[in-house]
Amino acid sequence: MIRFSALLRTAALVAAVLVAPALARAQGAITGAVTDESGAALPGVTVEASSPALIEKVRTVFTDAQGLYRLVDLRPGTYKVTFTLPGFATFVRDGLTLEGAAAVTVNGQMKVGALEETLTVTGEAPIVDVSSTAKEQVVTRELLDAIPTGRQVWTVAVTMPGVTLSGQDVGGAGGLQQTRMRAFGTVEQEVTMEIDSILMNSVHGGGSTQQYFNDGMVQEMSVQTGALSAEVQTGGVRINMIPQTGSNQLHGSFVAISVPNSSFQNSNLDDKLRNFKCGPTQAACGLSSVNGVDKIGDYNFSGGGKVVKDKLWFYASSRTQVGDTTWPNVSYLEKNRIYVQSGRLTYQMDSKNKFTGYYERNKKTKSAQSPAIGTSFEAANNRPGTDPYEMAQIKWTSTVSPKLMLETGWGFNAIRFITAYQDGIRKVRGTADWFRVVGHRDLGLNTFTVAGTPETNTLTHRNSVYGSATYVTGSHSFKFGGLWSGGPLRSIVDANGDLIQQYRNGVPESVVVYNTPFDTRTDTNHDDGLFAQDTWRKGNVTMNLGVRFDYFAASVPAQSAPAGRFVPARQFDKIVSPTFKNLSPRLNVSY
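-> structure tokens emitted (591 positions)
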């Protein structure tokens, strides 16, 4: 079994980031040019960006020979930008709102004047990123609260142009079931999930299976759907969730959403559907019930404050989701529950160094999981939720100088879930009941009875170690780094009778046999990447020049499986897959 102790053992990997740079993800930027009243470039202007969102409170850079400046890796928040140069009046731009990874252009025009003169322009600058071609939409906390999405990350993403889901959850009828995202021809396995710019993809489902993220911990969410930079391995949907951070003031929120019973939903079940006949024998296969929602609930408490004033802050959140649904031709409810607890600590060591730690644990239970329309309760597998999903991360950010920033961190993602028989259905292998109590699927009537599909136990985790360095001049912003990532995937499967019996309108037709029992493991040894990226501005042209090298290696350790009903005992040697190496340039230009 893969347990949280693996997280503790792998925590030692964090030390490696101090000597090996790895992949970092972009945050916002403020960029622009400074001129005098005649339009001539002003080099050497001091540009200060101040905001409570910055660990150092004030970030300072200087314009280059062309009068250009660039402030990078800025957290979302409200900023004030101040331009000063001896012999010129101070120019201030206040009330700038920065969101996501957008680069906001703020130009300064300074006039000759006394040192004590200050010109202040107050108001939000339009967030039009003229230096990037990336397709990005930032969803603020206000939007997350206002849009009726069900407060799930995939239902938020589908509101973006070009994003589609593997299935639509209409009014909660999906029962809190996760759906996969894709955009503009990409596949679900190309989705990149991040928390505070740290990779949080699992290795399950090729990376398409995600956590049930806690909405109460999110300050804002950035969704990118195209023209991604060399910092990202794939070209699919990229979601970066910025967590809430505690402050010196104790504050919190509570969200309660409840639809108490099925009276709040209409039904399209009529006599035509009830009396429907099918097949050559005109068997009765009408519906006694349809998909519906019986109960929806979402109860989310969040809050944070200081541990040590101006040094150490906390933020925590607990969320419980309820989704009770009905299925066609069944008499029971499918009761879904998701329980999530999250916490974050932020430590400001000094004005240049910040450490954060994040942990999230969630558990999903499902009373009955229907493989077909007319599934009897004893044939509907359940999700007991005995093993939780977990995420953890540690991150260090350092602004070494106005021109140099370092980031490094470690992330952990574990997905563990069981689909089990209902109580009393699992039988001892080889006994008479084990041969008798097997799944019965009727292909004509579309029913499933007696026992469920094979029991499965899936356990997987991924570790990611990363770091990056960013060097900024007025016209250039150069970043390089890399990522080491990998982890195991274990799958345990067993079934009564090692088969499922199939019928056609009550007449035996065929069987589906399994090579159960088995316990398999595959290892993603390396899913690594190195990148170099430069944003170069010259006049009205911004060139984003990047190159990325990816390395992938996997293996299957030596393993064995006992004899089953239809297969002998098996022994397999270790298999090492071919390695994959890929060098990909990334280029986009904006004018």
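Helices lie at 5-10, 141-146, 153-157, 271-274, 432-436.
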